[in-house]
Structure prediction request, 197 residues.
Amino acid sequence: MPAPKPALLGPLAANRFRPPRGQKKVYLPNLPLTYLRTPFAPPNYATFITPLSFNKLDLKDYLYNLYSIPCLSIRSYVQQSRVREDKPGARNPKPRRWYRPRAKKRMTVEMPATMPFVWPKAPSDLKAWDKETHEQAKEEQEEEQKRRGIQGRNLPRADGGSLREQAEELLKGKKVWRPGWMDWDVRGGAPGTQIGL
Prediction:
């Protein structure tokens, strides 16, 4: 019996198999996708924080349908949070009640080299964002936290000297005593106004 002849195969077409792309239609996305600034990554890599239920195909469809960006590859990993005692913001934190905050999912997308994204430089003049007021508020909050903390008893009083000095000034007649409630108007008027009863 003669040996069977091998079947002749034609040349394989390039990109013969392509995974489905753009099949999931997203009209109004209600997904919190956070684009992270990664200064040490190449410009054709983008990193996102995504919901835990978000998968690679979802991100691929999202970027393709909304921004017309094809994805070459996507890497994802779930970053677990540290275990802490009790839930954050609990009124009465309970010791030895362990709680792990929700994990975060990060996805890194490789885009084509022809579509790089370079972050704009950070602005040097921050007056438009009222940076000075923000810094002053931050300093005041830190001072208040120090004053109300355990070491706050040893710090000088913010209202000007000790109680002994204030009492001596009242006795000598340098200052006139006035009750504190008169400086605060409950009805929203200016401080020091008379309240009609």
About this structure: The longest strand covers residues 73-79. The CA atoms of residues 127 and 133 lie 10 Å apart.
